[in-house]
Amino acid sequence: MPISVLLVDDEQLVRAGLRAILESQPDIRVTGEAADGASVVPLVRQLRPDVVAMDVRMPLLDGIEATRAVLRAVPDPPRILVVTTFENDEYVYEALRAGADGFLLKRARPAEIVHAVRLVAEGESLLFPAAVRSLAAARGGNARAREAMERAALTEREAEVLRLMARGLSNAEISGHLLIGTETVKTHVSAVLAKLGARDRTQAVIAAYESGFVVPG
C-alpha cells in the first residue's frame, strides 16, 4: 500500500509543490490538503493518512496546537512531519515536544522531501538534525526531565541504544553499530520508550537531551 499523506499549509503554492514532488513517487499518494491547522483533526478522521506534512506557522491554528489536537483526539494517530522555513525555529522545537515526529525544511530538495516522508512513515529513524538538537540541549538543566530519566533506570544496553537513537540512527544502523540483531534492537527501543513514557523516538530523544543524558557533540 502506498504511503498516504495529508498536506497542511496556508500557502497554496507550497501545497502544490509538495503534492507534485510526492505524487511523482509510486509509493506515495496525497489524499488531501488543508490551509490551516484547524481543519486537521476532521480530515485525519476522514482520510486516515499515514503522514501529515504540516506547516508550523499558520494563522488560525498553528502546527504546534494542531499536533496536540491530533494526538489528543485521534486514536492511532498518523505520523506528523513539521514543515518549516527555519531549522532553528523555537516553533519547530515546541512542535516536536508536542509530539511531531520530525521536521522538513521548505527549501529541501525533492529527494530529501520524499526521503523524509518515507522515514517518518517507517518510524524507525529520527528527523532531528543538529540545529534542533542544540535547542534541546539548551534545556539540559531541566530538573523534571532529569528526574524522569533517573526513574527510568535504563539498563546499560538501553542507554547505549538511546544515545544512538539521539544521533538519528535507524534500527538497522544501531544493529550494525552494536553488533546485535535488528529484532533485539527493536526490543531495546520499545523498552526505552516504555520506561520513559515516550510516544515515539522523537519524544525519547527530547527527554534524553533535556535531562542532560545526551549532549550534542
TrEMBL record:
Pfam families: GerE (PF00196), Response_reg (PF00072). The modification 4-aspartylphosphate is found at D55. Residues 147-212 form the HTH luxR-type domain. Transmembrane segments: none annotated. SMART domains: HTH_LUXR, REC. Keywords: DNA-binding, Phosphoprotein, Transcription, Transcription regulation. Residues 4-121 form the Response regulatory domain. InterPro entries: CheY-like_superfamily (IPR011006), NreC/VraR/RcsB-like_REC (IPR058245), Sig_transdc_resp-reg_C-effctor (IPR016032), Sig_transdc_resp-reg_receiver (IPR001789), Tscrpt_reg_LuxR_C (IPR000792), WalR-like (IPR039420). PANTHER family: TRANSCRIPTIONAL REGULATORY PROTEIN NARL-RELATED (PTHR43214:SF24), TWO-COMPONENT RESPONSE REGULATOR (PTHR43214). This is Response regulator transcription factor. It comes from Streptomyces lonegramiae.
